[in-house]
Amino acid sequence: MGKVAILFAGQGAQRPGMCDELAQAEPAARAVFELADAVRPGTSEQCFSGTAEELRQTANTQPCVFAADLACARALAAHGVRPAAVAGFSLGEVAALAFAGALTDEEAMRLVCVRAELMDKAAHEHPGSMRAVLKLGAETVRCLAAEAGDAWPVNFNSPQQTVVAGLPGSLERLDALVRDAGGRSRALAVSGAFHSPLMAEASEGLAAYLAEAGLPGAPELPVIANATGEAYPEAADAVGERARLLSSQVSSPVQWVRTLECLRDMGVDTFIEVGPGKTLTGLVSRTLKGVVALPCETPEQLAAALAAAGTDDAGAAGEKEQ
Predict the structure, then answer these.
(1) pLDDT at residue 321 in the model
(2) pTM for the complete prediction?
(3) CA–CA dist 167, 148 (Å, integer)
(4) What's the CA gap between 114 and 31, in Å, rounded?
(5) Mean pLDDT throughout 75-91?
């Protein structure tokens, strides 16, 4: 049998009511939301009852998705899932580091709140947006973005999907160039040009925060970094390099294709996406062949994920406490 990896969803996956059923059914998931509320009161209420508009605000999105991600992962672990490695998409990387023991849950939650504030501030000071470009290869998209000017490929999601961030006028030019090249572009409902040079000040602020806190520590299992598509260094004295990877991430491209290929090369053949939605599940299916990918947000999905992971606890998942 192959190995299991847990993938942590990122900003944009949020939805009203996310993880409500799982929190009711799984004590390990509920404990994460209680911790999140202790650090940032109202987080669970926003997850379970917040409106779509409320959840789209970066200051709300990031803490809520983080809590949902980690809650789902803790539920998997409580039922015996021991992944060979973990990875998170953008924001999800913080949850992945917490799950791997590089941050305590409280440290991670506080870090996410700082990260959200810094990125929101940068987005307001340097307005921009993002486009998902479909049906074109990454190198073609790179060339078109350069031609458009002030636009940068920032999320290498799959071989035929690359997200570009940039200034509004540049993205309008990009739309026309993509259309002429036979591709398709779709505006993303985001509040800034994330993972682009327009987020440089957010990276600097995050680096300063991590340096003062001496974070993150050494992970207890491999965490694949967005910025490189390779594992974070695990040596105890590599805290500076880990901090650099995590802080630079907000203004650097997400190398998701490389991340998935790295996990595959490690022997992973079962990918479980935790948190709201199933975006990453789809990206795995469009990038790798011969692997299993499935989401884990509801009690029913948890049971299916446990079965796919080969645990003996699948039948007990989702049973509500009496």
Answers:
(1) 41
(2) 0.95
(3) 10
(4) 22
(5) 98
The one catalytic residue in 44, 158, 195, 252 is 195
Peptide bond preceding 233: is omega within 30 degrees of 0, i.e. cis?
A: no
Q: Is the pLDDT of residue 157 over 80?
A: yes
- DSSP state, 11? T
Report pLDDT digits (tens) over 264-321. Answer: 999 999 999 999 999 999 999 999 999 999 999 999 999 999 999 998 665 555 554 4
Catalytic residue among 44, 79, 90, 129: 90
- C-alpha torsion angle, residues 304, 222, 120, 184 (rounded to 10): -60
Whether residue 79 lies in the annotated active site: no
Query: In sequence order, what are the beta bridge partners of 190?
Result: none
Residue 131 three-state SS = strand
Known catalytic residue: 195? yes
